[in-house]
Amino acid sequence: MTEKTWNVSLTEIQKLQALDRQAHLHSFTDPQAMVQAPPFLMQKAAGSQVMGQGIQLLDAMAGLGNVNIGYGRAEMAEVAYGVMRDLSYYHTFAGITNPWAARLTELLMEIVPSQFNKVFYANSGSEAVETAIKMARLYWKREGREDKHLIISRDFAYHGSTIASSALNGLRVMHEDFGTETSEDALHVEAPFWYRFGGEMEFEEFGRYAAKCLEEKIIEVGADNIAAFIGEPVQATLGCIIPPKSYWPEIERICRDHDILLIADEVVTGLGRTGEWFGQETFNFSADIMTLAKGLSSGYQAISATLFNDRVASVIEGEQGVLQHGFTTSAHPVACAVAAQNIKILQKEKLIERIRDDIGPYFKTKLEELLDIPIIGEVRTCGLMAGIELCQDKETRDQYPLEYYLCQHIAQAALETGVIVRPAGNVIVTCPPFIFTHEDVDALVRRLRRAIEFVHDRLK
Ligand code: PLP
């Protein structure tokens, strides 16, 4: 953005807000609230900072947990510009490809867990999940076991906003308006959410217990009816729920024993967020299908990927006939080039190693200082993602009523102190860019503390 557009006048800002408010229906926004307050006009971003309406904020959410390499990188813009001039668009239907799709595929095959040898491209995380579901069904159909159609997900899961992916979401409010809670195709089991549901159990013991809930559900419903289990290695969106180390290997064993496909939704965790390239490495398991999106392009372009191991890919490819699935902009040349450049930056600047060895541990240590505040019950971190859980009583871990909207108030107060975090029920989530410095972590913790204390001081 040029200086000119950044320095727009107040009248211009108001005009843009009015234009937007007239006809733009916003994602995950209360339209009634937009009648009361104009939209916030975000105008510029660089590194870990975002700016709008004359205000500069430290973005401890990396947009929506996706701007991993930070904002405003000139090399990303240059790559996009060059490709747009060479091949602004061509589709990949009917066996056509482009150089950038081919090169991204080569690069992905070098970095993904070794069982994945095939990739399908789409535009969003929801579409990647949708693709995973359809391919799991296709796999079983081709195996002559069409009854295996159900997908099992978990409470507190977030898998997307299209009908099939949102049916997997584990929060009732997301289903009520669309009838997806009655979807016969998605079932839910308990999340490995120790702080809320662990009771007297030890952390690792609870991991095994939570995995057992899946096994019980499979036995109840019948493995002959189940196509796959899907899970985020860390349940990021709805509270940064970090499972015990005992959880995922046990889930993998259960899926294998009952002949159910395992889908790792790595839309958030993929490409470094956990301090390893993939969540499967952090939590020591191997899925049959994996989804990637957010960190694939760091938000510079809309692109997602679904990857398959040989078992699934060989069956999908094993029969003649057109694969009845795809998107106009699948493997878009510009998006593929930008994603490849993003991966090269992660590699060249060793950003993931830096999370593991330096900024991740510092982020954990500093955030844990917040535990001295009476209403902070748990600070859980994994790589560069954290959930800061509120409680009414540290002993009993009792929650405040959700109707108090305490985390919304804290996130609002944090904006006043200059930092962006996200509320998720009684959890404050932060998911900063990988380029976060020690000073950025200090600023996040200092500003968040002021916001939490501000709200705590007013609690009656
Ligand atoms: N899967 C996971 C784990 C996510 O966190 C999200 C989005 O937050 C999605 C899927 C959906 O991605 P998108 O919003 O790009 O459709």
Automatic annotation (TrEMBL):
Cofactor: pyridoxal 5'-phosphate
GO MF terms, alphabetically ordered: pyridoxal phosphate binding; transaminase activity
PROSITE patterns for the chain: AA_TRANSFER_CLASS_3 (PS00600)
Alphabetic keyword roster: Aminotransferase, Pyridoxal phosphate, Transferase
Listed GO CC annotations: cytosol
InterPro entries tied to this protein: Aminotrans_3, Aminotrans_3_PPA_site, PyrdxlP-dep_Trfase, PyrdxlP-dep_Trfase_major, PyrdxlP-dep_Trfase_small
CDD domains: OAT_like (cd00610)
PANTHER family noted in UniProt: AMINOTRANSFERASE, AMINOTRANSFERASE CLASS-III
Family: Belongs to the class-III pyridoxal-phosphate-dependent aminotransferase family.
The protein's name: Aminotransferase
Organism whose genome encodes this protein: Temperatibacter marinus
